[in-house]
Specification:
The protein has 271 residues and is of the alpha+beta class. The chain contains five helices and eleven strands. The chain has helices at 31-42, 73-83, 115-126, 193-216, 245-251; strands at residues 5-9, 19-25, 48-55, 64-70, 95-98, 132-140, 157-171, 176-190, 219-224, 229-233, 254-255. The strands form three sheets. The chain has a four-stranded antiparallel sheet, with helices on one face. The protein has a four-stranded mixed sheet with strand order 6-7-8-11. A hairpin with a 4-residue loop joins strand 9 (219-224) and strand 10 (229-233). It is globular and about 65 Å long. The chain starts with a strand and ends in a 16-residue tail after the last strand.
Length: 271
Amino acid sequence: MDVEVDILEFQVPVENNKTLFVWDIQPSLTEAQIYDGLDRVFSYFGPLYLLKVCPNAPLNPPGFYALIKFYSAAHASKAQRQTDGRSVFQSSPLKVRLSSKQTPHFLSDSRPLSHARCLELANHCLGFDGWTSDIITLKELNNEEEKEEEEEEGGGRWKRLRFGCLLQLSFPHHRQTTRGAAVVEDSFTCADPDVLLQKRCKLQKLVREKALVQAFTTVLLILLGNGKVMVEVKQTSDQFLPEQTEGVLQMSEFAPNEEDDDDEEWDLTLS
């Protein structure tokens, strides 16, 4: 008998076959109650990337609709088949359909999940003991050619901080490992040593998170129909060897010093 297989990557899902529209949601429920009900029902089929509840447009009957996006097309398809026409959390049946809306071209290119989403997906599929991360190198990168910072008005000095991190991501139950590297920097005027310390701590945390995200981009989760999960690592041209640590930290592109804008706002209205 053939075993159903689905492959998940640690990337933002943009495919239509992973997105469900749900409508005919009763107006007697609050948005919070609807969200909890949908989350309880649909997360049973697999991890959710997005769940958004919206009130119907003014010209339509009172009520709500929802958009639900899965990481897995197989999970979305199964959820649609088993919930359409059923009153899963309310007294009347829901309508559940796979999205047929065309994906805008600027969203068609995949991008990595945020740090928080990577942890959420890994923990959901593998368990909290299914993976580990270990820092190989985390250090401040100084440019010796830079001139001494000029003193600014008010006694502050212009300061530039840059940190690099190389870490190893391991999946002990599957005997798989991969690595990720990142470099982050920030420039600012500082007169208070405490502010400088806070900046250092923030950048060290950010560079660790970005290196972990980079490592997860090489990971494939293979979901088998019997409920088991396998882990494979994509072999890429930039896999890191131990002796390459210094070069990685010097050659990596700078990552912007911004918090991940965890998923842009989409136009979720039904057309």
